[in-house]
Amino acid sequence: MTMDKSFDATAAEARISAEWERLGAFAAGANASRAETFTVMIPPPNVTGSLHIGHAFNNTLQDILVRWHRMRGFDTLWQPGQDHAGIATQMVVERRMAERQEPGRREIGRDAFVEKIWAWKQESGDTIINQLKRLGASCDWSRNAFTMSGAPGAPAGEEGNFHDAVIRVFVDLYTKGIIYRGKRLVNWDPHFETAISDLEVENREVPGHMWHFKYPLAGGATYEYVERDEDGRVTLRETRDYISIATTRPETMLGDGAVAVHPSDERYAPIVGQLVEIPVGPKEHRRLIPIITDDYPDPSFGSGAVKITGAHDFNDYGVAQRNGIPLYALLDTKGAMRGDGLSYAESAAIASRAAKGEDVGDVSTVNLVPDDLRGLDRFEARSRVIEQVTAEGLAVTYLHREIEPETGAEHLERRPVVDAKPITQPFGDRSGVVIEPMLTDQWFVDTKRIVGPALEAVRDGRTQILPEQHKKVYFNWLENIEPWTISRQLWWGHQIPVWYGPRIEEGYDIEKDGMAALTYNRPQQFCAATEQDALKQAREYYGNAVEIRVSPVDFFDPLHGGQRKSPNPAAFGVGNAIRQAVQRIELSRDPDVLDTWFSSGLWPIGTLGWPEPTEELKKYFPTDVLVTGFDIIFFWVARMMMMQLEVARDVPFHTVYVHGLVRDEKGAKMSKSKGNVIDPLVLVDDFGADALRFTLTSMAAMGRDPKLGPKHVEVNRNFVTKLWNATRFAEMNGVRGGGARPDPANTVNRWIIGETARVLMVTDEALASYRFNDAATGLYAFVWGKVCDWYVEFAKPLFDGEDAEETRATMGWVLDQCYAMLHPIMPFVTEELWALTGDRTKMLVHGDWPQLGAELIDADADARMNWVIALIEAVRSARAQMGVPAGAKLDLIVTEADAPARAALMANAPLIERLARVNTPMDGAAGKGMIAVSAQGASFALPIGDVIDVAAETARLTKAVGKADKDADGLRKRLSNPKFAQNAEAEVIEETQAKLAALEDDIARLRAALDQLAAM
After folding, report:
1. 238 and 329 in a common domain
2. Per-residue b/e over 279-293, b at no fewer than 16 CB within 10 Å?
3. What pTM value is reported for the model?
4. I need a labelling partner for 49 at 20 to 30 A (CA). Which of 364, 699, 756, 1015 fits?
5. Residue 516, pLDDT score
6. Rounded to the nearest 5°, which phi and psi values hold at 763?
7. pLDDT per position as a tens digit, 8-54
8. In this protein, which residues make up the domain named Methionyl/Valyl/Leucyl/Isoleucyl-tRNA synthetase anticodon-binding (predicted)?
9. Structural domain tally of the chain?
10. Residue 887: its pLDDT value, please?
11. What is the DSSP string of 739-800?
12. Is the peptide bond preceding residue 497 cis, with omega within 30 degrees of 0?
C-alpha cells in the first residue's frame, strides 16, 4: 500500500481510536506477558467537566507511563472514572431547569431533582471521557467508574458499589469516633447555601473600604491614651472615653463578643477588663462587651484594637475559642440578616449577661440583629449600620479643610475616616458570590486521629513524592491539620447515613415515664448503612413501647441548630399533655451530603471493588504511581493517603509525581479574564493529538511550569511530518519493516544500530525516573537528527551500491524501533506507520518494547561516523557564518590529520563531499583567503576569498557582535541587580542565565569569525 504524501491526523485518529476500542486494546491485563502489575488511577475529572489544557498535560503523562509498561508486558490497569462534583453538577442542572422555565428544585422535591441529575448525567456526563479518547488516553474504558455508582435511585447502567463503599467507611469511622458532628466555622456559599472547601474558594483582590468606629467605654468612663514613637517619646496624649476599631464588614459589629488588644499594648492597659458599648442597635438595649487581651491583635496595625466576631471570622473564631467568648450568628443560609430566633430585647439581655461572665449556655437562638435590619441583604445591612453609627456621632472623624475658589473662604468640616484600599475577598469559584465564614453544625473527620500513618508512610519512603520540594507542602499541611468538614448542604451526593430521634434524658425510663422522657434539644443519632439498620438501632434504644418510623421531612437548620419545620408534637411526644396519645416516634434523616473529596478519597480502593475481596483489588492495589497537579496535594493526595491507610491499612500508591501548571507562552497563568486560555481540542484540530502530546511531554521538566503556545505545537507537527516523510523515503527505496534485527557490515548501518540502542537506554532511564522531557528531547534529537537527517542522507548512495539490501533491512528495523519508542508519546502517527510499513501480527499498542543493550554500540563505527558528522557540521557552520552562498562548492584542504582521522576521511569522502558541498579532500597548506575548520585529530582550510565579499561580511559580523554585546550587557545588569535576585522566581533567573550563556557563545563564535576574516 502506497503511503499518502502527508499524514491526515483527523481521519487517522478517529479510525485508530475506534480500532483500539474494538479490540479492547486498553483492557486491564491486555498484552501482559509477565506477572508484574502496573496500576495508575486517573484523577477523576468532574462529571460536568470538559477537557482543559491541564487535563491534557496530566493525562498525557499518565498515558506515556501506561503505554510504556503495557508494551513491556506488564499487567497494566489505567483506571478511569469521574467525580460526581456535588456543587458543580447541581448548578449545571439547576441552570438548565431555569433555561427551560421548569419548576425549581425546591418545588419538585429532592427525589425528583436527583432523578433529573441522573438523566443529565446519562445524556451529557461523558463529555470529558470522549475528549480524553480524542487525546489518545489508553484507559480501560470498560471499567469507567463513577463516585455515585450504585447510589439509591441510580438508573440502569449506573450499577456498582462505590456508593456502598463510601457509606460503609462513614459508618465505620463514625463508630470509631473519628467522624463526629460539631459546630465550627466553615466557608459558606450563600448562593448554593452550603459549606464549601478551601479549594472552592477563590481569593481575589478587589476595591474595598475600612471604616473606623468608636466603641464608648461603659458608664462614661475615661482613660489617658498615650502614643509613643520608636524611641519612647510621647507623640500624642489625650483623654478618651472610647476605644477605636476598624472593620471592612461593619454589619458584623452586631455579633461582636469582645474587643481584643495585645497584652503588650500599653495604650490600652488601663482599660483591659472594662466593658465597652457596641455603637449600633436600639439604645434601650445597647450591648456591652469586654476588652480582653490576646496575642492575635497587631499593635502596629491601625489602632491595635480588634473587634471579635467569633461566628463570622476565622481569626476571630480562634480568639473567641481561647477566651470563652460566645459565638453569635448573624446571617441565614442565603447571607441575609437573620430573622429567626429570639427577639432582639431577649437576645441582647442574654448577651449582656454573657459579657459579665455569666454562663448563658447555648446561644444558637440568640439573634442580635435589630428588628429594623432583620431579613435585609448583608450588604444593604452594612450600609444601614454605617449610617446609624455615623448619625450617632460614633464614627472616627478627621478635620477636612476646603478653600472656596471664588471667595477664598476656608471651610472646616469633620468627616468620617474611611480608608479606600484594595482588600482580599473570598468568592465561590462557581457561584461567584462573596463567601461568608459561618458557624455551622457540620460533620467532621477528626483528622488528627488518622494523620500519623500518612506522615510516616512518606517519611519512611513507602510513598515517594516527586519532585522532592512537594514533600514540604505535604508535611506542612498534615502536621498542622485541622478537622476536615465533610458535609455539604446539597441534594446531589452521598446522603449522610445518620437518622435523628428524640433523646431519652438520663434517669428516665420511656416505658414508665412515657413520651415525657424524650427531648429534642440534643437529638439522638443513629448511624447505619441502611434505613433498616437505623430503625433496628432505634428499636434497641427506645424499646417496644413506641412505634418507630422514618419521616420524609428534614428538620435541621445547619446554621443555628434550630428546626427547619416544626415537627408534629404528637409525632415526637413533646410534653406531658400527650402521654396518652399514640406512642409514635419519627426519625428524620440528616439531609446533608458528603463532600466529594470524601468519596474521591476512596478512589483507589473504591474503583477496585472494595470492600468486596475482588481479584482486581488483590492484584492492582496498592497502585504504582499517581500523576497529579501540585494544587491538590493536600485536598486529594493527602486525603487518599489518610483514608486508604485507615481503611485498607496500606498506602494507595508508591509514587506521587507532581507536575507543574501549564502557563501561556509568556509564563502567565491562564484565565478567562485575561483571554489567554488555550483549548487543547483546538490544538488537536489544528495540529493533531500527537503534536500536542509531544509538545507537552517535551515541556514536562520536573519542578517546572510548562509555557505553551500554538507555535510550540506547530513545531512538533513538523516533527510528525518529518517522521512521515522519512518513512515515505524509505518506502520509495523498497524498505519494509517487521524484520529481525540485522547484523550489517557497512559502517553507516552499524553506527545507526548503535545509536538506536543508545537512545533506547536514555529513554528507558528517563521514563523510569519521570523525566518525561528528557525522554522526549532525546527521541527528538535521535529521530529527527540522527535518523531522518543523517542516516537518510548517508543511506542514499548506499541504496545504489553493494550494501543496498542490508541498508534496506537496517532502515526498516531502525524505523520500527523509532515507531515503538515514540508510541507512548505519539500513539496515532506511530500506529499508522506501523500498519503501513510491514506485515504485522498485532497493533503497535501491543507491540514489543525494544530490548537493546550497550553491546550493540560499535565503538569503531560510532567514532568514525560521529567524526564525519562533526566535520560536516563544522564546514556547514563555517559556510553559514561567513555568508558563503549555498550553491558554492568549496575545496577542502587537509592541513593536518592523524591516522584515525585520515582513515575516517578516506572511507567517507563521498558522503562528506555531498553533504558539506566540498570537492574531493586534498592535502595542502592554509593560505590567504582561507578560513580554518577542524575535527578531532585533523585541521582543514576552506578557500572562500573568491566567493564572498570580505568587507561586507566583516561589516555584517561586526554589527551582529555589537547587538549581541548590548543584549548580553543588559542580561548581566539584570542578574547583578540584588532586587532581581531576591524577587525573581528561580526558573526566571535560570532562564536569564541560560540566555546570557548562549549569547556569550554566539559572541565568541562571531569574534572568531571576524578574526578569520581579518586574517584573510
Report:
1. yes
2. bbbeeebebbbbbbb
3. 0.85
4. 699
5. 64
6. -65, -45
7. 999 999 999 999 999 999 999 999 999 999 999 999 999 998 999 99
8. 749-893
9. 4
10. 85
11. PPPP---SHHHHHHHHHHHHHHHHHHHHHHTT-HHHHHHHHHIIIIIIIIIIIHHHHHHHTT
12. no
Same domain, yes or no, for 417 and 288? yes
Buried b (16+ CB within 10 A) or exposed e, 565-602: eebeebbbbbeeebeeeebebbbbbbbbbbbbbbbbbb
Q: Residue 960's domain is classified under what CATH number?
A: 1.10.287.380
Whether 277 maps to a domain, the answer reads yes
Rounded Cα distance between 971 and 965, Å, is: 10
Determine contact, residues 260/297, Cβ cutoff 8 Å: yes
Same domain, 128 and 265: no
Domain end marker among 358, 388, 423? 423
Question: Can you read off the three cell numbers belonging to residue 106?
Answer: 425546591
Q: Which domain holds residue 993?
A: 950-1015
Is 226 a domain residue? yes
pLDDT tens-digit map of 491-532: 999 999 999 998 887 777 766 666 666 766 678 999 999 999
> Which residues on adjacent β-strands are paired with residue 83?
46
Cα 812 to Cα 820: distance, rounded to the nearest angstrom: 12
Residue whose C-alpha is closest to residue 165's, from 704, 524, 648, 527? 648
Same domain? For 270 and 416 the reply is yes
Query: What's the one-letter identity of residue 746?
Result: N
Is 116 annotated as belonging to a binding site?
no
Count of beta carbons in the 10 Å neighbourhood of residue 3: 17
CATH of the domain at 414: 3.90.740.10
Q: How many angstroms separate the CA atoms of 937 and 284, rounded?
A: 103
Sheet holding 194-196, edge to edge: 194-196, 179-189, 436-445, 484-485
Smallest CA-to-CA distance from 638 within 626, 648, 622 is with 626
301 lies in the same domain as 218:
yes
Residues 368, 338 within the same domain: yes
How far, in Å, CA of 39 to CA of 78, rounded? 6
